[in-house]
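Readers of this paper often ask what the protein records in our data store actually look like. Such a record has a labelled line for the sequence and another for the backbone structure tokens. Nothing more is needed to write down the fold, since each code stands for a local backbone conformation. The record that follows is passed on verbatim for readers who wish to inspect the format.
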Amino acid sequence: MRIVVTGAAGQLGRDLVDVLSGRVPVGGVAGAPWGPGAVTDLEVIGTDLAEVGGSELLALDLADRGAVGDFFAEIRPGAVIHGAAWTAVDACEADPDRAFAVNAMATRHVVEAAGRGGAHVVYISTDYVFDGTSPRPYVEWDQPSPVSAYGRSKLAGELEVAPGHSVVRTSWVCGAHGANMVKTALRLAGGDGPLRFVDDQHGSPTFTADLAGALARLAIERRPGRFHLTNAGATTWFGFVRAVLSAAGADPARVQAITTAQLVPPRPAPRPANSVLDNAAWRLSGLPPLPHWQDALRRLVAVLASTPQEGG
């Protein structure tokens, strides 16, 4: 089976390529309940906007409908994990046309080209499709109501995915590659003074080492429908950063709680106050839950401590 991963140079894409190629076990833990190692004829092809020096990634501009069609006609994949996106939430607010071009129209091109060859599409979406006003975690059947350009563009991408394929919403993504909140917190921990993070935005941290295996499973088994996929448990950014410092052996008491209204400068794009995702469809399918986010965080901090940093 041949699987194409778009956005393969990103933090999730790199872990997806590693997991699918068998270079690392699912979740970075030997003996994980499932992994593509059992699939002996699996071939993974990673694409991104430009070739990355020293990597195996292929350059593919997903905004170019003709180029996408030609690529898929040549590669003829059995599945596509479409993770390429413009995820700069505040930048999307300033340039919604670009957000829709990258997150919606490019998805249209991928779905169209994949459909010609019968490939199963797994589209990666976001908790930002919800407005955050729910008093409980969101399930897959709740009505989306995005409040930011980024959220609207990702919901538009969901609407481009044909029935019979997979839409996966995830949130607060962190991994060993690229920039994310874990790396930011560790960098700030090396300085002096208090660290201030909001305590009125609630969400579910998700770690790429665990998410990658679940996405691979959806692609290989061609499971249709909408899924929420996050690590177990929920917290706030304040609680999350305190946990990062604690896992790294630093003083969590340095982290102080503030409200979103106290952010200086204020963020251009509104954030959902509650974007906790209930992985109901995954759970009701009888599939094993992703590990608790605190367990995943400890694993990631240990990995980061033992490897050179790419930035954060």
